[in-house]
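pinned: reference chain
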Amino acid sequence: MSETALAANERDPNESDVSPSRHEAIFDAFVEVAMEVEAMLDLDELLHLIARHACELIGVRRCFLYLLGEDGLLHGRVGHSPDRNIDAEVKRLVTGVKVDGFTSEIFEGRAPVLVTDAVNDPRTVRATMEQWKVRDMLGVPMVFGGEVIGVVYLDDMENDHSYTKLDTEVAQAFVSLAASAISQAGMITKLRTRSSLIERQSDHLERLSRIHWFMTQTVLMGDNIPKVLGRLVELVDRPVVLRDRDFSVISWSAPSDAQADTPPDLVAPDTLRAAWNNQRHDETASRRPSVVIEVLNDRGEPSRHLLASVRVEMELAGYLEVVDPTSEIDELDVTVAEHAATVVALVILSERRAVAVKGHEKEDLFGDLLQGARDPNVLARRAFLFGIDLSQSRALALFARQSDSDITMSQSRRRQMLGAMVEERSGVPCSMALSLPEGEMLLLGPFGESDPAALDPIRSAANEILENSVHTLGLRRAVVSEMCRSAEDYRIAHQDLRDALTLVDGLGWHRRVVLPADLGVLRLLKGDRQRSESLQYAADLLGPLIEHDAAQSTNLIGTLQWYIDSNASTRATAERMRVHENTIRYRLARVKELSGVDAEHLDDLVNIRFALQVLDQIRVDDVSAVR
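pinned: its structure tokens
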């Protein structure tokens, strides 16, 4: 026990006035308390000091200090005991004046109350006294401004203690001074809290001002996405990632001290998607366009991520992600991210509209090329502005739409998808696209060479698209033009494509993709009457052979085709068909016998070649219907 406490115990039991030595002890204790108030960082430290000095001044070993709460109840705050720390147990204690006669008496009299034989005293809570093994206890009110703000309970644990009138007066004097110190400490705490709040608000306003400046500068300067992310990194000093609707990374930026080729703490798209969906199920979180989630990064370590949705014209376009692996994400960070997501949405919308305007301008140019209504030199200069050199070899491809298609896709979306699919499958760039009444027109190229064989990848790609995308794009046939090498060529090529589409549709051609080499002399058959007469002529000439092949399982038509392709050489035809020359001679004799056509005469060969080309445009099963 300290010298102050020992001196306090050496007194006359009947002494009632506070002696000079006790005055000095009280003064010294209060000075220490006052100094603690001035330097106080934590209220509990001050309360501990008060509890310790109260024990020393009265000469007891234990103290319980309660403060009045806003609920009108006394809440245990700290305790003092020589053998152990009892704070945790004291903080669980709550008492009220209505259920505790001891405390009620202290409150009503605003003066110290002493109980002896505390366990059996009717004013106390017996269970509490037994739990703490209290023998005698002095309760001293902490009065400030005429109101009780707390109570100090003093006891000597399991020992009896004789409390004199002087003890009571000393305890009351010190506790009253302590009440003043506690109130002052409370005011200091409030002032510090208010000062801290003002400081945070000032910082908040400063950062908000920077946000508004950032948004204004971004819009006025016309920044692109990478610049927007770079500005955002300056604001939050954390890595920032822009993801698409599927959570794949589009772009990212990080503070200059983060030397990395990939975003720090990168998280897999599936992991982010699951975390986002789980958070959005929460009713509170669903009202905001952002959530804070904690997930495992690619190294298996936990990291926090702030995700703000990016919406363009009410449609989800992606997510803005702020990566914060080490510190807490506060409300202002959320505000910054949400404002930045709005800026990103504005940039995306601006870029989309710029692309749309550019697309309309390209469509106007493409339409003028196809119509040939403008000066060729003007068209060439306009095309050059879009990076298109009309002197290079290019081709037109017309994809005809199904007349009974129920596809609801917009024309612009269909053109976009079709152009991308042709590029992907053929490796040939699609420079422009335009929707016409007859179908979707594409400008393909440039081609590195003018050889018609350069169009073969277009045939393969178009066949695959028509085969696999009939229910997606609603397309039925594709016709491809010859190579165009000047602005004047495109009007002619456009007309040829329209004529070719009409021709193959009229002939009922079974091929779905038509290239210039496929048409041959059939390009001369532009009128309906000419096409009808050609079909009838081919059917009359070759019909008997087709019917014979079907009935006898022979190959007279195939032999004629190989014979013509082999330049009317019997030997070459036999080699290509892998049969004997006499077999070819026999089959040609049967052709002459059934149809009257002599394959050894030039005139008959010309007729056969023309009929076979017409026949190639229609299904063999349709010949009998024509006849």
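why pinned: Residues 1-16, 620-627 have pLDDT under 50 and may be disordered. The chain has 23 helices and 16 strands.
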